[in-house]
From TrEMBL:
UniProt organism field: Spirilliplanes yamanashiensis
Domain of life: Bacteria
Domain EAL: 24-280
Name this protein carries in UniProt: Uncharacterized protein
Residues of the full protein shown: 746 to 1029 of 1029
Length: 284
């Protein structure tokens, strides 16, 4: 490579790097502003009983409601929120908003209609001192039965396999709150971990469901996760069900619950409640 070309490549690299940094900084500043102004909203995606197509639970999913740019999905800001620590405030708002919504729903719904609401918790949020007290306090404030709350954690949280994390999860479960491992199979947690641990649900990541119908290998992988869940006495929920083939395959494997665009995209609280209240089955 000629010296000149190398130099100009380096300059381009530098300027790309620079603009990426500027963009990140701008994003962080805008996010900071959004946190102060409360520019977030929650959508709810139904978790469906695959045998009846009935919504039995919902996962709360955050969106950034940007005054100029409209609705921004979490993939575009959760990472920066996590790095900057803003996720702690965002996560607190998400939990409060979800419990507030459930407290309103449960005043009207027949008992047992809604099984639970699922809320994503980031590693940083989980490790913030006082997190468990906060969960307890919010359940109390909104008068929500702790069994109505499922917290979704990721394998990253379990990677260190430290006793403190397991103890904290156990404390949450002692309250009655349930714990799901989100995106199960994408991390590096060893399966041995999961025996006798305070975990209730494995959520099979969408990437496994995607190729399951065409690839025997993926099929076997999903089957083995369902089998693992059964062995460990855990419930299993499949993510990213987009076709009737996905649903039928999962049902044959013995997976009872799932969520995905086949049933519904994440929707507003009002739309979610309309389904629950009418007992209507979801279009599929
Ligand atoms: P996740 O927790 O695994 O949530 C499932 C994601 O898959 C959602 O994306 C959902 O809309 C999408 N999805 C569900 N079914 C389908 C399908 O059939 N096809 C396709 N293509 N996608 C499907 P979303 O809402 O964009 O959220 C992305 C991720 O952002 C979440 O993945 C979660 O990791 C994170 N996230 C969302 N809300 C929160 C939150 O309140 N706190 C934290 N810490 N993270 C959150
Ligand atoms: Mg999730
Ligand atoms: Mg997930
Ligand atoms: Mg996922």
């Amino acid at each position: 490579v000629a010296k000149g070309a190398g130099k100009s490549q380096w300059r381009r690299y530098e300027s790309d790097l620079h603009s990426a940094m500027v963009q990140r900084l701008e994003l962080r500043t805008a996010l900071d502003h959004a946190v102060n102004e409360g520019h977030f909203l929650l959508h709810y995606q139904p978790i469906v009983d695959l045998h009846t197509d009935e919504a039995v639970a919902f996962e709360a999913l955050v969106r950034w409601h940007h005054p100029q740019r409209g609705t921004i999905p979490p993939d575009q800001f959760i990472e920066v929120a996590e790095e900057s620590g803003l996720i702690v405030q965002i996560g607190r708002w998400v939990l409060e908003q979800a419990l507030h919504t459930v407290s309103q729903w449960q005043r009207i719904l027949p008992p047992g209609r809604l099984h639970y609401i699922s809320v994503n918790v980031s590693v940083r949020q989980f490790r913030t001192p006082g997190f468990i007290d906060e969960v307890r306090g919010l359940l109390d404030t909104y008068g929500v039965d702790p069994r109505m709350l499922m917290l979704e954690i990721t394998e990253t949280l379990l990677m260190r396999d430290d006793e403190q994390t397991w103890q904290d999860l156990q404390k949450l479960r002692d309250l009655g709150v349930r714990i799901a491992i989100d995106d199960f199979g994408t991390g590096y947690s060893s399966l041995g971990y999961l025996r006798q641990r305070p975990i209730d649900v494995l959520k099979i990541d969408k990437t496994f469901i995607d190729d399951m119908v065409d690839s025997p290998q993926q099929h076997a992988l999903v089957q083995s996760i369902v089998g693992l869940a059964r062995t460990l006495n855990l419930k299993v929920v499949a993510e990213g069900i987009e076709s009737p083939e996905h649903r039928d395959t999962l049902m044959r494997m013995g997976c009872p619950l799932g969520q995905g665009y086949l049933f519904s995209r994440p929707v507003s609280a009002a739309e979610a409640f309309a389904w629950l209240n009418s007992h209507a089955r979801l279009a599929a």
